[in-house]
Amino acid sequence: MKNRIIEAAIIAASLVVTGIILSAAFNNFTDRDRLVTVKGLAEMEVPADKVIWPLMYKDIGNDLTTLYTNIQSKNRTIIDFLQSNGITREEISVAPPEIIDMEAERYVNQAIQYRYNATSVITVTSSEVDKIRKLISEQTELLKQGVAITGGDYRYNTLYEFTGLNNIKPGMIEDATRNAREAAEKFAMDSGSKLGKIRNASQGQFTITDRDANTPYIKNVRVVTTVNYYLKN
Question: I need a labelling partner for 224 at 20 to 30 A (CA). Which of 48, 138, 140, 147 fits?
Answer without folding.
Answer: 48
